[in-house]
Specification:
This protein is of the alpha/beta class. Helices cover 25% and strands 25% of the residues. It has one domain: 4-Layer Sandwich (Metallo-beta-lactamase, Chain A). The longest helix has 13 residues.
């Protein structure tokens, strides 16, 4: 079966946010929704959420799931907000707990009780299944970029988050705490076992540094043949060396510290202080 896929692309963070729906039942899921955030003013916004919900309303869809492919380091997740607005179940990979364990100590008192922070309704394991209307959905654990990364296979489509970018842009970085180029290579090979015609929807695009228009859809066959990092039968040791050298040149994402503190809580803001104000901590000289 083939889902309908709508993308609300967030230009500020280069993130592809998806509404995935079953045309037979008008049931839907929202994947990797962005909560807008201005780091200068410290204000959050709902412009991207509103675009997603406008599509839901225009199509008469009922949203059953709000899903994240992983704990994002470059934008704040709108999972908690959308779960509340839509009355939907929320889901992410169980690796959320490992990321939280790895990174919570960095934020000291602000996250000392991270294990008691909110999580999703469902923490998926490799091989778990669920439905969106009549669409059969399967979860593949695909760690390497982060321990929390999963791929959602929905009918003839898959949503890979940051594991794979468009073929001319390669693969995700592996240098965050808990990342592993060895794991990422294995995860890509698992994804490549899907049929060639499987539609693949990626989590980010930057237009290949401005050399083409923004894009977010490719296919398993196209990726296997021509991805610049892992296509054409690239060998594991070559990939690991390439990834190590490339990652050494990369700086932290602009929203890394706010994103991690919110997304470890499944899109919930840190608890407010006695005056009702939530705070983001910026650890100095920690990374």
């Amino acid at each position: 079966m083939s889902p309908d896929v709508f993308c609300a692309f967030d230009d500020t963070t280069g993130t592809a946010c998806y509404v995935v729906s079953d045309p037979a039942t008008a049931r839907a899921a929202i994947i990797d929704a962005v909560l807008d955030f201005d780091p200068v003013s410290g204000r959050t916004g709902n412009a991207t959420v509103d675009r997603l919900l406008a599509h839901v309303s225009d199509r008469g869809l009922t949203v059953e799931w709000i899903l994240d492919t992983h704990i994002h380091a470059d934008h704040l997740s709108a999972t908690a907000l959308l779960g509340e607005r839509c009355g939907s179940r929320t889901g992410m990979g169980r690796g959320l707990l490992e990321v939280r364990q790895n990174l919570a100590p960095m934020f000291g008192g602000a996250d000392e009780a991270a294990d008691d922070s909110p999580t999703c309704d469902e923490l998926f394991e490799d091989g778990d299944t669920f439905t969106i209307g009549a669409l059969e959905c399967r979860v593949l654990a695909t760690p390497g970029h982060t321990p929390s990364c999963v791929t959602y296979v929905v009918g003839d489509a898959c949503f890979v988050g940051d594991v794979l970018l468009m073929p001319d842009s390669g693969t995700a970085r592996c240098d965050f705490p808990g990342g592993s180029a060895t794991q990422l290579y294995a995860s890509v090979q698992k994804i490549f076992e899907l049929p060639d015609a499987t539609r693949m929807f990626v989590g980010h695009d930057y237009g290949a540094n401005g050399s083409r228009d923004i894009a977010w859809e490719t296919s398993i066959g196209e990726q296997r043949d021509s991805n610049i990092h892992v296509g054409g039968g690239a060998l594991e040791h070559d990939f690991i060396e390439m990834r190590r050298a490339r990652d050494e040149t990369l700086g932290l994402p602009r929203l890394f510290f706010p994103a991690i503190q919110v997304n470890m809580r499944a899109g919930n803001l840190p608890p407010p202080d006695a005056g009702g104000v939530a705070h983001i901590r910026i650890p100095l000289n920690s990374i």
